[in-house]
Amino acid sequence: MPTHETGFVYVMQNAAMQDLVKIGFTTKLPEERAHDLSKPTGVPLPFGVSFRALTMRWREVERMVHQQLADHRVSRKEFFTVSVGEAVETVRECVLAVNGIGAWEPTSRHLVKRGDRVSLALEAGQIFVLLAMPSPLPGSGWEVLDLWQAHSDGDQLEIYGAGQAAEVAGFSDGDPGGDDDPVPYLDRAQSAANGALNGRERLAPGHRLLWLADTADGTGACASVIFEAWDHCQIASRTWSPLWTREGYPLVLHTLVRDPSEAMLDTARAALNLPAPRTWAPRSTTDRADTHSQPSPDHWLPQLGADRTGR
User: Fold this and answer.
1) Chain CA centroid to CA 300, Å
2) pTM of the model
3) Does the CA dihedral 11-14-20-25 come out positive or negative?
4) Predicted confidence (pLDDT) per residue in 155-177, tens digit
5) Please, what is the end-to-end C-alpha distance for the chain in angstroms?
6) Residue 27 and residue 3: Cα distance in Å, rounded?
7) Are 285 and 175 spatial neighbours (Cβ–Cβ below 8 Å)?
8) What is the tens place of the pLDDT at every residue in 46-58?
């Protein structure tokens, strides 16, 4: 099962090595890694970050990228004779392959707790079903609160485990800050935009998020994964390939442009019969305007905190 943490797979360049790119991973900010690589006296010019992908299972992503570009690899190092564009496209493809729905155990309920950072790589047409119990009393039953859809391959859904309800906000609930990006940048200089936010929602303890994807094997089957909020959670959805309606409106997380397949509907019906959640809290929005406190981006992405390069 993927770790509930995020790191970076990066593409770097060095002006002294014009025909090469370096592809690797780091659990720090890529700029810190570039700084470390540039310190040795044998490196005449500093490294610069050309691209970064925030991802789970970063080791596996890096390994797959290196395998796909093996014919262009220079010796056994992390340097490749490919263009930046080809390197970036390969990283994007591998993030989707390694962190897609197939990376998760389908028969388990994956708990998301305080401090967890979950990053899901999506494909166009995948559906999310938000489920909740209105009461913790036996027999209250599950209800469908909302349906969401991914619109482009490579879209990303992030689930952040929060400490308290006041830290999270949802657009559909009309919460203060519900349309603000919790992590708009991926560097301290605020120059590396984190895609385009196309949805922000919240989960209360006990909520379940059912991730559904039609399989491509022609059997009409459906892959599914269930995430369960142990603590209050912040949802952020973002895209690097925005799509628009004919009227000129952006396709956002709540915009459904397809009907769920029969397999998806069957899977959702089955989820309504699952046992009660392990924790529960009400979904009340009362007085949230007075209690909401917008955390800084480094609250959700700790790498944005204190600079660890010593500069």
Assistant:
1) 12
2) 0.92
3) negative
4) 999 999 998 899 999 999 889 88
5) 37
6) 13
7) yes
8) 999 999 999 999 9
Whether residue 25 contacts residue 95, with contact meaning beta carbons closer than 8 Å, is answered with no
Strand partners of residue 51: 11
Which residues 6+ apart lie within 8 Å of 231 measured at CB?
A: 112, 113, 114, 161, 162, 163, 205, 279
Picking from 304, 101, 109, the residue whose alpha carbon sits closest to that of residue 209 is: 109
Structure tokens at 42: 């044998």
Average pLDDT taken over every residue of the chain: 91
3-class DSSP string for the chain: CCCCCCEEEEEEEECCCCCCEEEEEECCCHHHHHHHHHCCCCCCCCEEEEEEEEECCHHHHHHHHHHHCHHHECCCCCEECCCHHHHHHHHHHHHHHHCCHHHCCCCCEEEECCCCEEEEECCCCCEEEEEECCCCCCCCCCEEEEEEECCCCCCEEEEEECCCHHHCCCCCCCCCCCCCCCCCECCCCCCCECCEEEEEEEECCCCEEEEEEECCCCCCCEEEEEEEECCCEEEEEEECCCCECCCCCECCCCCCCCCCCHHHHHHHHHHCCCCCCCCCCCCCCCCHHHHCCCCCHHHHCHHHCCCCCCC
pLDDT band at 284 (very low <50, low <70, confident <90, very high): low
| Among the listed residues 257, 250, 253, 248, the one whose alpha carbon sits nearest the alpha carbon of residue 238 | 253
Neighbours of 88 (CB within 10 A): 18
Q: Is the pLDDT of residue 255 over 80?
A: yes
Measured CA to CA, the distance from residue 178 to residue 292 in angstroms comes to 10
What pLDDT is stored for residue 138 in this prediction? 79
